[in-house]
Structures are given as structure tokens and as C-alpha cells.
Amino acid sequence: MSFDSRLLSGIGVVVAVVEAGSFARAGEAMGLTQPAVSRAVARLEERVGIRIFNRTARAISLTDEGRRFYEAVAPLLAGIEEAAVSAGKSKAIVRGRLRVNVDGTFGHYVLAPRLGAFLDRYPELSVEISVRDTMGDLVAEGVDVAVRFGTPEPSSLKARLLLETRVLTCASPAYVVRHGTPAHPEQLAQDHQCLLIRDPTTGRPFEWEFQCGKKVVPLAASGRLMVNDTGSLLGACMGGTGVAQLLEIYARDLIAQNRLVQLLPDWADEIFPLYAFHHSSSLVSAKVRAFLDFVRDLAS
To answer: What residues contact residue 54 under an 8 Å CB cut-off, 6+ apart?
Structure first.
């Protein structure tokens, strides 16, 4: 099959539709009408001999063949753009729309309050934050990058370690006044109310663990309150209901504001990783690269 400029143009339209999530929004981004976008996609589908999108009156989605085609051509298109920038000896411009998938607690407590500085730094960029309990299908949903805590499971996505944060044991000042400060992790199980958070994969509470250097003490934590999200856990802890294990990236500012007290500071060597997930590619777009650098700085 011979190459011509219409083929490259059609590929660019398809990538824009996937990133925008609709023909209309892709047209707005490219300065085209919706019918023009639809015709460009139809021509490319006829040229390559596959149906790229499933179309309904309300939504579009990639077919299985379309997904494989997109995953193959999107990195190449990004490579062409990167090569053009390099050839011009200019810095890659961070611009366009960046779609980010995050869990609710990270989005509410860490990312959203600091996004203003990121947007000020890149005035040609707009950001769309999607809060989700699960990562979902980044390609089908037109998501550029997802941010999730925990060890990644095997997938076709590229996983990048952004930062590691400690696990802190915390309570409110009022709780400490009423119940005292434990001297050892085992005292929590004996004399204190532990706030539990449910593991969605097992339905049981997440297990507690304390680490001091190489010494690890597991704890059969028990308490009368169990929640299924970190926001509720933070609220209950600040309200004096009990003791919670919290990621330092969430608790750090609250401790500095004296709204929480860190307990057992010598037993806080356990760490938890934060990963970014994006489409597998040796070349990452300038906007994704800028966002990853920004999130890495959040722990400092």
C-alpha cells in the first residue's frame, strides 16, 4: 500500500477522536467540522480495510481492530511530532488537552489543590481530571495518563514509579488527650480503637504493619468503624474516632497544622509506591512528560 499525505492526515484525525472522546470535540480541537472528521475516519477505515470505531447515537468506542491500530500508530504519530520539534531545534511545547485518571483521595487532597501552579506554568495546556475507583480502559476512554497507588499488575500499559510515601500512624489531638500515646504497636490492639479501611479485592480490612528498619511487626488491628475510602478515614481520624494508618502524602499537611498527631514515629519505615500508567511508547508526549515531572515533585 503506497503512502500519501491523506493517510497520515487520517491517522491524525483518528488519534484526535480517541483523545477527545467524540467526533465533535476532535473537530473543535483540529478546526474541522464534525462531518469532515467523520469523512476522514471513513476514508481511513476504507483504506486500511477495518472498522476503527463503533458508532451509536450517543457514543463512540474503538473496535478490537481499531484499538490495535490505534496502539500501533499513536506512538508513531507522537514520534513524528517529536522529531519535527527536534529538527527545528526547539523545545517541545506543552499544549492541548491532558486527560488524567486518578483515585478520589489523591485527586481531592493532593492533585487538585496544586494544579493551579501547573496550569500557570503551561498556559497552552488544559487539564481534565477524571476521578475513578478503578483505572478502566485508558485507550477506549481517551485518557492520557492514570495515577494510582500500589504495586502495578501486569498489563500492556507503561508503568512508571513516580514516588514512594511512608505509611504513618495518626490520631487527632483530642483522641491523644483522651486515650494517651502508645509506646509500641502492640498497645494499639490492646488499648485503642483502630480505624479500618476495606480492601475492595477481598472485602476484608487492609492489614496493618509496622516497620522499624528491618524489623517488621504485623498487627491484628481491630475497631468498631470500617470505611471504604481514604477520605472517610481521614475525616474519622481528624474527628477523634480512632487511630488510622495514613499515607504521609495525605497526612503531612494535617500534621503540620496540628490537626493530626503522628504516633509511633520510630515505626514508620513502611513505604507505599505511586505509579503513573500511560500508553506503552518509547516516546511520551510533552504534556504527559510535564505532568509526570509535576507529580514527582508533589512529595518534596
So the answer is: 60, 61, 62, 63
- 120: which 3 cell numbers? 500557570
CA dihedral 43, 48, 53, 55 (to 10 degrees): 50
Instruction: Answer yes or no: are the C-beta atoms of 283 and 158 closer than 8 Å.
Output: no
- Rounded to 5°, angle at Cα 224 from 257 and 207: 75
Residues 6+ apart with CB under 8 A from 13: 26, 30, 32, 37, 40, 41, 44
| Residue keyed to cell 503512502 | 3
Three-class DSSP category at 167: strand
Question: What is the SS3 assignment for 198?
Answer: strand
Nearest to residue 149, comparing CAs of 138, 169, 135? 135
Please answer whether residues 101 and 136 qualify as being in contact, where contact means their C-beta atoms are separated by less than 8 angstroms.
Answer: yes
pTM of the full structure: 0.65
Residue 128 in grid coordinates: 481534565
Nearest-Å Rg of the Cα atoms of the chain is: 24
- Amino acid sitting at position 218: P
pLDDT tens per residue, range 142-168: 788 999 888 887 777 888 898 899 999
Q: Which residues pair with 195 in a beta bridge?
A: 225
- Measured CA to CA, the distance from residue 69 to residue 48 in angstroms comes to 10
pLDDT at 90: 41
